[in-house]
Amino acid sequence: MEKKSHLLNITDFTKAEIVEMLNADINSSSELFAAADETKRLYVGSKVYFRGLVEFSNICSKDCFYCGIRKSNSNVHRYNLTDEEILEAASFAYENNYGSLVLQSGELASEQFADRIEYLLCEIKALSDNKLGVTLSLGEQTRDVYKRWFDAGAHRYLLRIETSNQQLYKRLHPASHSFEKRIDCLRILQNIGYQTGTGVMIGLPYQTIEDLADDLLFMQSFDIDMVGMGPYIEHEETPLYAHNDILWPIEKRFSMALKMIAILRILMKDINIAAATALQAIDPIGREKGVKAGANVIMPNITPGMYRNDYSLYQNKPCTDEEPAQCRGCLDARLSLADSEIGYGEWGDSKHYFRRMKK
Ligand code: 5AD
Ligand code: FES
Question: How far is residue 194's CA from residue 137's CA, in Å, rounded to a whole number?
Fold first, then answer.
Protein backbone atom coordinates (compact mmCIF):
# COMPACT_ATOMS: atom_id res chain seq x y z
CA MET A 1 0.00 0.00 0.00
CA GLU A 2 1.14 3.54 -0.72
CA LYS A 3 2.55 5.33 2.30
CA LYS A 4 0.26 8.12 3.59
CA SER A 5 1.88 11.54 3.75
CA HIS A 6 2.56 12.83 7.27
CA LEU A 7 1.01 16.10 6.06
CA LEU A 8 -2.43 14.47 6.21
CA ASN A 9 -2.22 14.26 10.00
CA ILE A 10 -1.18 17.86 10.44
CA THR A 11 -3.43 20.15 12.44
CA ASP A 12 -0.95 22.97 12.90
CA PHE A 13 2.22 24.29 11.31
CA THR A 14 4.87 26.41 12.97
CA LYS A 15 5.98 29.54 11.17
CA ALA A 16 9.34 27.90 10.46
CA GLU A 17 7.63 24.91 8.83
CA ILE A 18 5.55 27.18 6.60
CA VAL A 19 8.61 29.18 5.61
CA GLU A 20 10.40 25.97 4.68
CA MET A 21 7.53 24.81 2.46
CA LEU A 22 7.24 28.22 0.80
CA ASN A 23 10.96 28.21 0.13
CA ALA A 24 10.92 24.75 -1.44
CA ASP A 25 11.16 24.43 -5.20
CA ILE A 26 7.74 23.93 -6.81
CA ASN A 27 9.02 20.74 -8.47
CA SER A 28 9.82 19.19 -5.12
CA SER A 29 6.46 20.18 -3.61
CA SER A 30 4.41 17.29 -5.01
CA GLU A 31 3.82 15.81 -1.54
CA LEU A 32 2.40 19.16 -0.38
CA PHE A 33 0.04 19.42 -3.35
CA ALA A 34 -1.09 15.79 -3.09
CA ALA A 35 -1.81 16.21 0.65
CA ALA A 36 -3.74 19.45 0.01
CA ASP A 37 -5.82 17.75 -2.66
CA GLU A 38 -6.56 14.79 -0.40
CA THR A 39 -7.43 17.11 2.51
CA LYS A 40 -9.85 19.01 0.30
CA ARG A 41 -11.59 15.82 -0.80
CA LEU A 42 -11.87 14.57 2.78
CA TYR A 43 -13.13 17.82 4.36
CA VAL A 44 -15.03 19.77 1.71
CA GLY A 45 -15.44 17.27 -1.12
CA SER A 46 -14.22 17.52 -4.67
CA LYS A 47 -16.79 19.94 -6.06
CA VAL A 48 -15.89 23.39 -7.27
CA TYR A 49 -18.47 26.11 -6.60
CA PHE A 50 -19.10 28.99 -8.94
CA ARG A 51 -19.73 32.56 -7.87
CA GLY A 52 -20.74 34.78 -10.76
CA LEU A 53 -18.70 37.95 -10.30
CA VAL A 54 -20.29 41.28 -11.21
CA GLU A 55 -17.83 44.16 -11.12
CA PHE A 56 -20.58 46.73 -11.26
CA SER A 57 -18.58 49.94 -10.88
CA ASN A 58 -14.94 51.00 -10.94
CA ILE A 59 -15.60 54.31 -9.20
CA CYS A 60 -13.40 54.20 -6.10
CA SER A 61 -12.73 56.56 -3.21
CA LYS A 62 -9.55 54.72 -2.20
CA ASP A 63 -6.04 55.24 -3.48
CA CYS A 64 -4.11 52.00 -2.83
CA PHE A 65 -0.67 52.27 -4.42
CA TYR A 66 -0.96 48.94 -6.27
CA CYS A 67 -4.42 49.18 -7.79
CA GLY A 68 -5.21 50.20 -11.35
CA ILE A 69 -8.61 51.69 -10.53
CA ARG A 70 -7.37 53.83 -7.65
CA LYS A 71 -8.98 57.23 -7.36
CA SER A 72 -5.93 59.13 -8.66
CA ASN A 73 -5.64 57.15 -11.89
CA SER A 74 -7.15 59.65 -14.29
CA ASN A 75 -6.61 57.35 -17.30
CA VAL A 76 -9.43 55.06 -16.19
CA HIS A 77 -12.78 55.38 -17.89
CA ARG A 78 -15.15 55.26 -14.92
CA TYR A 79 -18.40 53.33 -15.26
CA ASN A 80 -21.34 52.39 -13.11
CA LEU A 81 -23.78 49.72 -14.29
CA THR A 82 -27.44 50.57 -14.06
CA ASP A 83 -29.58 48.64 -11.60
CA GLU A 84 -31.20 46.91 -14.58
CA GLU A 85 -27.82 45.75 -15.90
CA ILE A 86 -26.85 44.37 -12.49
CA LEU A 87 -30.15 42.55 -12.14
CA GLU A 88 -29.78 41.15 -15.63
CA ALA A 89 -26.38 39.75 -14.65
CA ALA A 90 -27.98 38.27 -11.52
CA SER A 91 -30.66 36.62 -13.65
CA PHE A 92 -27.92 35.24 -15.89
CA ALA A 93 -26.22 33.70 -12.86
CA TYR A 94 -29.49 32.26 -11.60
CA GLU A 95 -30.57 30.87 -14.98
CA ASN A 96 -27.17 29.32 -15.55
CA ASN A 97 -27.26 27.62 -12.16
CA TYR A 98 -24.27 29.42 -10.69
CA GLY A 99 -25.79 29.12 -7.21
CA SER A 100 -24.42 32.42 -6.07
CA LEU A 101 -23.29 35.85 -7.05
CA VAL A 102 -20.56 38.26 -5.93
CA LEU A 103 -21.20 41.98 -6.14
CA GLN A 104 -17.92 43.88 -6.25
CA SER A 105 -17.06 47.50 -6.95
CA GLY A 106 -14.67 50.26 -6.08
CA GLU A 107 -15.10 51.42 -2.50
CA LEU A 108 -17.74 54.05 -1.80
CA ALA A 109 -19.24 54.94 1.55
CA SER A 110 -22.40 56.99 1.29
CA GLU A 111 -26.00 56.73 2.37
CA GLN A 112 -27.03 56.58 -1.26
CA PHE A 113 -24.66 53.68 -1.98
CA ALA A 114 -25.89 51.80 1.10
CA ASP A 115 -29.50 52.26 -0.01
CA ARG A 116 -28.71 51.14 -3.52
CA ILE A 117 -27.10 47.88 -2.41
CA GLU A 118 -29.95 47.18 -0.02
CA TYR A 119 -32.44 47.67 -2.86
CA LEU A 120 -30.42 45.44 -5.21
CA LEU A 121 -30.19 42.69 -2.61
CA CYS A 122 -33.98 42.64 -2.22
CA GLU A 123 -34.45 42.55 -5.99
CA ILE A 124 -31.90 39.76 -6.46
CA LYS A 125 -33.58 37.69 -3.76
CA ALA A 126 -36.96 38.29 -5.42
CA LEU A 127 -35.89 37.45 -8.97
CA SER A 128 -34.29 34.19 -7.85
CA ASP A 129 -37.05 33.07 -5.50
CA ASN A 130 -34.50 33.48 -2.67
CA LYS A 131 -32.31 30.85 -4.26
CA LEU A 132 -29.28 32.86 -5.39
CA GLY A 133 -26.66 33.29 -2.66
CA VAL A 134 -25.06 36.75 -2.53
CA THR A 135 -21.53 37.64 -1.49
CA LEU A 136 -20.55 41.29 -1.18
CA SER A 137 -17.08 42.71 -1.79
CA LEU A 138 -17.61 46.41 -1.25
CA GLY A 139 -14.83 47.41 1.10
CA GLU A 140 -14.93 49.13 4.46
CA GLN A 141 -18.33 50.22 5.73
CA THR A 142 -19.91 51.02 9.09
CA ARG A 143 -21.41 48.31 11.29
CA ASP A 144 -24.85 49.72 10.58
CA VAL A 145 -24.41 49.40 6.81
CA TYR A 146 -22.96 45.88 7.07
CA LYS A 147 -25.95 44.91 9.24
CA ARG A 148 -28.50 46.40 6.84
CA TRP A 149 -27.01 44.48 3.93
CA PHE A 150 -26.93 41.27 5.98
CA ASP A 151 -30.58 41.72 6.90
CA ALA A 152 -31.38 42.32 3.23
CA GLY A 153 -29.99 38.90 2.34
CA ALA A 154 -26.22 39.08 1.82
CA HIS A 155 -24.65 36.19 3.68
CA ARG A 156 -20.97 36.38 2.76
CA TYR A 157 -18.51 39.26 2.68
CA LEU A 158 -15.02 39.47 1.23
CA LEU A 159 -12.57 42.02 2.55
CA ARG A 160 -8.93 41.32 1.87
CA ILE A 161 -6.43 42.38 4.49
CA GLU A 162 -3.95 42.60 1.56
CA THR A 163 -1.03 41.86 3.92
CA SER A 164 -1.02 41.04 7.62
CA ASN A 165 2.22 42.97 8.08
CA GLN A 166 1.12 46.34 9.40
CA GLN A 167 4.34 48.10 8.34
CA LEU A 168 4.05 46.75 4.82
CA TYR A 169 0.36 47.73 4.72
CA LYS A 170 1.38 51.28 5.54
CA ARG A 171 3.91 51.30 2.70
CA LEU A 172 1.30 50.17 0.19
CA HIS A 173 -1.39 52.67 1.12
CA PRO A 174 -1.73 56.41 1.68
CA ALA A 175 -1.75 57.53 5.32
CA SER A 176 -5.52 57.92 5.28
CA HIS A 177 -6.00 54.14 4.80
CA SER A 178 -5.97 52.24 8.07
CA PHE A 179 -4.86 48.69 8.79
CA GLU A 180 -6.64 48.80 12.15
CA LYS A 181 -9.90 49.81 10.52
CA ARG A 182 -9.65 46.86 8.15
CA ILE A 183 -9.21 44.49 11.09
CA ASP A 184 -12.14 46.11 12.91
CA CYS A 185 -14.32 45.69 9.82
CA LEU A 186 -13.44 42.00 9.57
CA ARG A 187 -14.35 41.48 13.23
CA ILE A 188 -17.65 43.32 12.78
CA LEU A 189 -18.51 41.19 9.74
CA GLN A 190 -17.86 38.03 11.75
CA ASN A 191 -19.94 39.29 14.68
CA ILE A 192 -22.89 40.18 12.49
CA GLY A 193 -22.92 36.62 11.22
CA TYR A 194 -21.48 36.88 7.73
CA GLN A 195 -19.37 34.09 6.31
CA THR A 196 -16.27 36.19 6.38
CA GLY A 197 -13.56 36.10 3.76
CA THR A 198 -10.20 37.74 3.52
CA GLY A 199 -7.03 37.39 1.52
CA VAL A 200 -3.67 38.80 0.59
CA MET A 201 -1.56 39.59 -2.44
CA ILE A 202 1.48 37.43 -2.97
CA GLY A 203 4.81 38.77 -4.20
CA LEU A 204 4.34 42.43 -3.33
CA PRO A 205 7.44 44.62 -3.29
CA TYR A 206 9.11 44.44 0.15
CA GLN A 207 7.04 41.38 1.15
CA THR A 208 9.10 38.51 2.57
CA ILE A 209 8.47 34.77 2.82
CA GLU A 210 8.12 35.32 6.58
CA ASP A 211 5.33 37.84 5.88
CA LEU A 212 3.52 35.26 3.77
CA ALA A 213 3.83 32.65 6.52
CA ASP A 214 2.40 35.22 8.94
CA ASP A 215 -0.46 35.87 6.52
CA LEU A 216 -1.52 32.22 6.72
CA LEU A 217 -1.20 32.19 10.51
CA PHE A 218 -3.24 35.40 10.64
CA MET A 219 -6.07 33.75 8.68
CA GLN A 220 -5.94 30.79 11.04
CA SER A 221 -5.96 32.84 14.23
CA PHE A 222 -8.71 35.09 12.89
CA ASP A 223 -10.76 31.96 12.21
CA ILE A 224 -11.65 33.12 8.73
CA ASP A 225 -14.27 31.19 6.69
CA MET A 226 -13.17 31.97 3.14
CA VAL A 227 -9.99 33.10 1.46
CA GLY A 228 -9.14 34.56 -1.91
CA MET A 229 -5.48 35.25 -2.49
CA GLY A 230 -3.48 35.67 -5.61
CA PRO A 231 -0.24 36.97 -7.05
CA TYR A 232 0.45 40.69 -7.14
CA ILE A 233 0.54 41.86 -10.75
CA GLU A 234 2.00 45.25 -11.50
CA HIS A 235 0.02 48.01 -13.20
CA GLU A 236 2.05 50.73 -14.87
CA GLU A 237 -0.38 53.50 -13.96
CA THR A 238 0.17 53.01 -10.24
CA PRO A 239 2.83 54.34 -7.84
CA LEU A 240 3.99 50.84 -6.91
CA TYR A 241 5.16 50.30 -10.47
CA ALA A 242 8.25 52.34 -9.58
CA HIS A 243 9.32 49.44 -7.33
CA ASN A 244 9.24 46.82 -10.07
CA ASP A 245 12.98 46.31 -10.00
CA ILE A 246 12.74 44.41 -6.70
CA LEU A 247 9.82 42.16 -7.64
CA TRP A 248 10.08 38.39 -7.76
CA PRO A 249 9.78 37.04 -11.31
CA ILE A 250 6.13 36.50 -12.22
CA GLU A 251 6.59 32.68 -12.26
CA LYS A 252 7.79 32.82 -8.68
CA ARG A 253 4.78 34.89 -7.60
CA PHE A 254 2.56 32.34 -9.34
CA SER A 255 4.13 29.24 -7.80
CA MET A 256 4.23 30.94 -4.39
CA ALA A 257 0.48 31.55 -4.67
CA LEU A 258 -0.12 27.86 -5.40
CA LYS A 259 1.97 26.83 -2.40
CA MET A 260 0.11 29.33 -0.19
CA ILE A 261 -3.21 27.75 -1.25
CA ALA A 262 -1.97 24.23 -0.58
CA ILE A 263 -0.54 25.04 2.86
CA LEU A 264 -3.70 26.91 3.85
CA ARG A 265 -5.87 23.97 2.79
CA ILE A 266 -3.94 21.71 5.16
CA LEU A 267 -3.97 24.34 7.92
CA MET A 268 -7.66 25.28 7.64
CA LYS A 269 -9.19 22.13 6.20
CA ASP A 270 -12.85 23.06 5.86
CA ILE A 271 -12.74 26.66 4.64
CA ASN A 272 -13.63 27.82 1.13
CA ILE A 273 -10.64 28.89 -0.92
CA ALA A 274 -11.11 30.76 -4.19
CA ALA A 275 -8.73 30.35 -7.10
CA ALA A 276 -8.05 34.02 -7.83
CA THR A 277 -8.49 35.50 -11.29
CA ALA A 278 -4.97 36.92 -11.00
CA LEU A 279 -3.69 33.31 -11.34
CA GLN A 280 -5.30 33.17 -14.77
CA ALA A 281 -3.72 36.46 -15.77
CA ILE A 282 -0.36 34.72 -15.52
CA ASP A 283 -1.22 31.24 -16.81
CA PRO A 284 -4.21 30.44 -19.09
CA ILE A 285 -5.09 27.51 -16.83
CA GLY A 286 -3.96 29.25 -13.65
CA ARG A 287 -7.28 28.97 -11.85
CA GLU A 288 -7.47 25.26 -12.61
CA LYS A 289 -3.99 24.89 -11.17
CA GLY A 290 -5.33 26.72 -8.09
CA VAL A 291 -8.12 24.14 -7.84
CA LYS A 292 -5.59 21.32 -8.04
CA ALA A 293 -3.59 23.00 -5.27
CA GLY A 294 -6.59 23.03 -2.90
CA ALA A 295 -9.02 25.77 -3.95
CA ASN A 296 -12.72 24.90 -4.24
CA VAL A 297 -14.31 28.14 -5.48
CA ILE A 298 -14.02 29.92 -8.84
CA MET A 299 -15.50 33.30 -9.62
CA PRO A 300 -16.27 33.50 -13.34
CA ASN A 301 -16.65 37.07 -14.46
CA ILE A 302 -20.24 37.78 -15.52
CA THR A 303 -19.87 41.55 -15.83
CA PRO A 304 -21.40 42.62 -19.16
CA GLY A 305 -18.63 42.50 -21.79
CA MET A 306 -18.42 46.18 -22.64
CA TYR A 307 -17.40 47.15 -19.11
CA ARG A 308 -14.78 44.51 -18.48
CA ASN A 309 -11.79 46.31 -19.86
CA ASP A 310 -12.35 49.17 -17.47
CA TYR A 311 -12.11 47.05 -14.31
CA SER A 312 -8.37 46.59 -14.59
CA LEU A 313 -6.98 46.29 -11.10
CA TYR A 314 -3.83 44.91 -12.75
CA GLN A 315 -2.64 44.50 -16.32
CA ASN A 316 -3.40 41.51 -18.57
CA LYS A 317 -6.60 40.77 -16.70
CA PRO A 318 -8.02 37.70 -18.49
CA CYS A 319 -11.33 37.28 -20.32
CA THR A 320 -11.90 41.00 -20.71
CA ASP A 321 -13.07 40.48 -24.29
CA GLU A 322 -15.52 37.71 -23.54
CA GLU A 323 -19.21 37.57 -22.85
CA PRO A 324 -20.41 35.64 -19.78
CA ALA A 325 -21.83 32.75 -21.79
CA GLN A 326 -18.47 32.12 -23.43
CA CYS A 327 -16.69 32.04 -20.09
CA ARG A 328 -18.92 29.31 -18.81
CA GLY A 329 -18.17 27.00 -21.71
CA CYS A 330 -14.44 27.31 -21.34
CA LEU A 331 -14.51 26.81 -17.60
CA ASP A 332 -16.54 23.62 -17.83
CA ALA A 333 -14.01 22.10 -20.13
CA ARG A 334 -11.03 23.17 -18.12
CA LEU A 335 -12.35 22.04 -14.78
CA SER A 336 -13.02 18.58 -16.06
CA LEU A 337 -9.32 18.45 -16.78
CA ALA A 338 -8.68 19.12 -13.12
CA ASP A 339 -10.81 16.08 -12.04
CA SER A 340 -13.38 18.31 -10.44
CA GLU A 341 -17.10 18.49 -10.67
CA ILE A 342 -19.00 21.77 -10.57
CA GLY A 343 -21.55 22.25 -7.79
CA TYR A 344 -24.20 23.72 -10.06
CA GLY A 345 -27.11 25.43 -8.35
CA GLU A 346 -25.54 25.04 -4.91
CA TRP A 347 -24.51 27.80 -2.53
CA GLY A 348 -21.43 25.87 -1.52
CA ASP A 349 -21.27 27.54 1.87
CA SER A 350 -18.13 27.45 3.96
CA LYS A 351 -18.32 24.37 6.17
CA HIS A 352 -15.96 26.11 8.55
CA TYR A 353 -18.53 28.84 9.13
CA PHE A 354 -21.10 26.41 10.52
CA ARG A 355 -18.51 24.83 12.79
CA ARG A 356 -17.45 28.30 13.98
CA MET A 357 -21.06 29.30 14.71
CA LYS A 358 -21.58 26.20 16.89
CA LYS A 359 -18.64 27.04 19.15
N1 5AD B 1 -2.42 42.81 -8.39
C2 5AD B 1 -3.14 41.82 -7.82
N3 5AD B 1 -4.25 42.03 -7.10
C4 5AD B 1 -4.67 43.29 -6.94
N5 5AD B 1 -5.72 43.82 -6.27
C6 5AD B 1 -5.70 45.16 -6.42
N7 5AD B 1 -4.66 45.51 -7.18
C8 5AD B 1 -3.99 44.38 -7.51
C9 5AD B 1 -2.81 44.10 -8.25
N10 5AD B 1 -2.10 45.08 -8.82
C11 5AD B 1 -6.61 43.00 -5.46
C12 5AD B 1 -6.63 43.50 -4.01
C13 5AD B 1 -8.07 43.87 -3.77
C14 5AD B 1 -8.79 43.04 -4.80
C15 5AD B 1 -10.14 43.54 -5.17
O16 5AD B 1 -7.94 43.09 -5.93
O17 5AD B 1 -6.25 42.42 -3.16
O18 5AD B 1 -8.53 43.57 -2.47
FE1 FES C 1 -7.80 49.95 -3.00
FE2 FES C 1 -8.47 49.38 -5.65
S3 FES C 1 -8.06 51.33 -4.69
S4 FES C 1 -7.92 47.98 -4.01
Answer: 12
